[in-house]
Design brief:
CATH architecture: Orthogonal Bundle
Strand content: 5-15%
Number of domains: 1
CATH class: Mainly Alpha
Length: 95
């Protein structure tokens, strides 16, 4: 894939390809779900075509998005939280 023209020689427009790849990666959709959604928009796209798009463009999207994501570590803390169960307040402490 060239950096200048990643969608060169593709049958579909780049925004359709990116939309399918982004929706597949972001939401819990299957390739067939996306095929059905595109059919609802008047586009005939086979689920295997969407699979090939994801395989080809997902690594490139990841590489281009990584610098813009907020860095974080896997550590997070929660103080005490109270919830009401059967009209009684109960403390959920982090352990």
């Amino acid at each position: 894939m060239t950096a200048q023209h990643p969608f060169k020689w593709r049958h579909f427009q780049s925004d359709i390809i990116l939309l399918c790849v982004r929706w597949y990666l972001r939401y819990a959709l299957s390739y067939r779900d996306l095929e059905e959604m595109m059919a609802g928009r008047g586009l005939s796209v086979d689920h295997t075509t969407i699979y090939h798009w994801v395989q080809r463009y997902a690594p490139e999207l990841n590489k281009r998005c990584q610098p813009h994501l907020k860095p974080s570590n896997d550590s997070w803390r929660v103080d005490e939280t109270y919830i009401k169960v059967k009209k009684e307040w109960i403390s959920l402490s982090s352990r």
